[in-house]
Design goal:
It is flat and about 60 Å long. The chain is mostly helical and 99 residues long. The mean pLDDT is 79. It has helices at residues 16-39, 42-50, 52-62, 70-81.
Length: 99
Amino acid sequence: KQWYQRRVRGVARKDWKLVAIRTVAGFCSFVCGTYAFQNMPVGEATVIISMAPVFVALFSMCILGVRAKCYQVILIVLSLGGGRQEGDGGCCTANCYQT
């Protein structure tokens, strides 16, 4: 067998394309997370990065056709809606940093 036809460390030849896509996606996630922490306020960057499981659930429903239970959909909507109420004095924009 040629080297590209053999199993390499437990990955079958037919699965290499998926492994490559996952590797590129993981690298892009790392680069974007690093960029976010360097160029955004830490609190906002942490919130965005912590939302990754919610986006995984959304994309799995949209792309893979995974069926979510009712409570899971409710929790996803609540996660995307956020917890900030009008008039709570919170600061989400750069306008708060102006003097």
